[in-house]
Amino acid sequence: MRGKRFPILINEIIREYNLSLCFLLETCSFVHTSERVIERIGFDAHFVVPSNGQSGGIYCLWNTIVVYVFYSRCSVCL
Asked: Which pTM does this prediction carry?
């Protein structure tokens, strides 16, 4: 799903299921677009693996009050 409605849809799902951690897979957006989308979704922490060519990216979003996430920025790990 593309466009301005995407963050609204994700926010509805987050509220309905009271999510504190969310993964969005196979995202094919540019880094500057992903930052705007993440900001509109409203989690207070995130980690983004940007899309590369035909491979989609990954967004990991969470609320630090509820969830502690440990991650490594290592392309070999992916």
From this structure: 0.72
From residue 62, how far is each of 2, 5, 38, 52 by CA, in Å? Answer: 22, 20, 10, 23
Give the 3-state secondary structure of residue 78.
coil
- Residue 12 CA, chain-centre distance (Å), reads 15
**Cβ count within 10 A of residue 61:** 24
pLDDT of res. 3: 57
Cα(16)–Cα(69) distance, integer angstroms: 23
Average pLDDT over residues 16-36: 80
Residue-wise DSSP of 27-76: E---HHHHHHHHHHH--SEEEEE--BTTB-EEEEEE-TTT--------TT
From the number of C-beta atoms within 10 Å of its C-beta (0-12, 13-18, 19+), residue 30 rates as exposed
